[in-house]
């Protein structure tokens, strides 16, 4: 089968397809999230409404196979791009689509003269190995803290 992958910018008209993709990607194992169409739409809309939003879609033969949501983040040394979400529809995983989306955001960071690309991921799930294989390294100088309030 010929690879007809296209990477393009996300638009507001892509929101519903991205919500569906989010649910298909994160609700099954290994994530086992409980996204609903409503919570997924609110979640992704928040990213898309950011003044410095950047998003890309991985499209295979007219089917949205994956999406990347990011925003430009101010930092004291150099601004950077922060990846808020990257997800690939399960049947399209392990085909290089996630890597293609990362390459697109890395190229944008370089073209904009930014300091780099940052993200957060779960250390105990497969995404960590994917990002490390893609050249990301765990930052030893920071820790993500959480306090449950309810």
Describe the structure.
With 150 residues, the protein is of the alpha+beta class. Helix content is 31%, strand content 24%. It is built from four helices and five strands; from the N terminus they run βααβββαβα. It has a five-stranded mixed beta sheet with strand order 1-2-3-4-5, sandwiched between helices. Helix 1 packs across helix 2. The termini are far apart.
What's the topology here?
Blueprint: E1 5-9, H1 15-26, H2 37-48, E2 53-60, E3 63-73, E4 80-88, H3 97-111, E5 117-119, H4 127-133
Parallel strand pairs: 4-5
Antiparallel strand pairs: 1-2, 2-3, 3-4
Helix pairs in contact: 1-2
In short:
Strand 4, helix 3 and strand 5 (117-119) form a beta-alpha-beta unit.
Strand order within the widest beta sheet: 1-2-3-4-5
- The tally of strands reads 5
User: Which spans of ≥5 residues are poorly predicted at pLDDT below 50?
Assistant: none
- Beta-strand content: 15-25%
Helix content: 25-40%
Radius of gyration from CA coordinates: 15 Å
**Could you spell the SSE succession in H and E letters?**
EHHEEEHEH
Give the oligomer, counting copies of the same chain as homo and different chains as hetero: single chain
Major beta-sheet overview:
5 strands, mixed
Separation, N- and C-terminal Cα atoms: 50 Å
Structural class: alpha+beta
How many alpha or pi helices?
4
Which word captures the global form?
globular
Mean pLDDT: 92
